[in-house]
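Support request, please re-run this one:
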Amino acid sequence: MEAYYLRANGIARQPVVVCVGSTDDFKEDLLCSIPRIASESGYSVLLVDVIGAGTGIRDTNAIESIVEVEDVTSHWIDYLWDRSDVDGSRLAIYGIGLGGAYATQCAARDRRIAAAVCDGGLWDYRERMFVERRLKKVDDTFIDSWLTARLLLAGPLPTIGCPYLVTIGAQDRLAVRDALSLLDVARSAQLAAHLKVFAPEETGSFPDHVDNPTLVHEYVFDWLRGAMRPTRPRDVRVDGQSNEIY
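Re-run finished. Output below.
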């Protein structure tokens, strides 16, 4: 695993956000935008390169095993879990751009993740929809809400056990209506799903939010602050008065 672990200021055990991009987004790119916003919000970050990223020279004649990103996520979490300066109850994953699909799979597999910013299964849904169109030779006019719900629930969405946020631009490649359908299905399944659509007038509305990623990062970390509030154990005193502590 190649990554940068950057701690926020302070000596207390801190929440950590694992930030992952796509195969053409390097951890060095994330250094330019993520750490300052995270630190101001009180979060440490682990910036990782996904499998296949990097500039190392490879032997093109060698046979390489196929490893999915979500299969190695547990190792990232293991590393953080073992650190004495990390609050293991507040570990989140943030998928940037196409990394949102990776974050979805990670959140669906690892119960130690307390919150996720991901695509909620939209990428998986579009793949399933493509196959459905090919097999049944249908177009969008024949795709009803029942089919959409069935395809969404057949993906990783039902197994995400933590609160998660899906961000999408109004001018993204994926249709906003798909994101709205995902939210409806998730809510009907009693999942803690949240959706933010960035409109053109507020910027951040283009694919991967390239027109204003800083705005999106700030929104994401504000949302994480609420989604991963510290637990408050109760110490019940003899006199019956409770003492709430962080």
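The beta strands are 3-6, 14-20, 44-48, 86-95, 113-117, 164-169, 193-198, 234-236, 242-244. The two ends are 33 Å apart (CA to CA).
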